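Same chain as my last thread, 75 residues:
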Amino acid sequence: MLAQNLPFFRSEREGLYRIGQTKVPGAKESRLYLYPDEAGMAIYLLEIRTKESQRDDIASARKAIREIRRQLDQS
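reply #2:
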């Protein structure tokens, strides 16, 4: 199980996690989306975006995870 009590680290479900930069005075809130493949012992860095595009970013990252899983299943 991944770290659960870190305020900047959060599950977005379906295997997607984000590391968020928040509450930095004068900074635009940023998010790094990642997919940890525990079985393959790999971390896929998917994208870095801002709060404004969060909904589209999560959808895009989930699509990337499905593609990664599909490719891993084929190998």
